[in-house]
Every structure is written in structure tokens, then in C-alpha cells.
Write a structure and sequence with these properties.
0% strand; single chain; mainly alpha; rod-shaped
């Protein structure tokens, strides 16, 4: 009887925590696979690097 109560208690306490952890892990995994919609096509990053190189060369 005590063994069953312990198992039931652990399921009630740790069950939702395990489900929440799995949900967050799945959300993060899916977020890594999907590209960020605000990334654009990369031109802004390339231009920023070009300006940095030009500034360093001017020094």
C-alpha cells in the first residue's frame, strides 16, 4: 500500500514537471529548425561587416 502511494505521489508531483520540460525542449528544438522571420536576406549583416572593414582600414 505504501509503495503504491509513493508511486502515485511521484506521478502527481513529477509528472507535470516532466511534461513541461518535454514541451519546452520540443519548442526550443522547433525554434532552432525554423528560420527567424526577421533575419531577412543577409544584406544588412553584410553591409555592417563592410562598414566595419572600411573603418578599420581607415585607421
Amino acid at each position: 500500500m505504501a509503495h503504491r502511494l509513493l508511486v502515485l505521489y511521484l506521478l502527481i508531483v513529477l509528472g507535470p514537471l516532466a511534461v513541461a520540460a518535454a514541451a519546452f525542449a520540443l519548442r526550443d528544438l522547433l525554434a532552432r529548425r525554423m528560420p527567424d522571420p526577421s533575419e531577412g536576406n543577409g544584406h544588412a549583416e553584410t553591409e555592417a561587416l563592410e562598414h566595419t572593414v572600411e573603418e578599420v582600414q581607415a585607421i
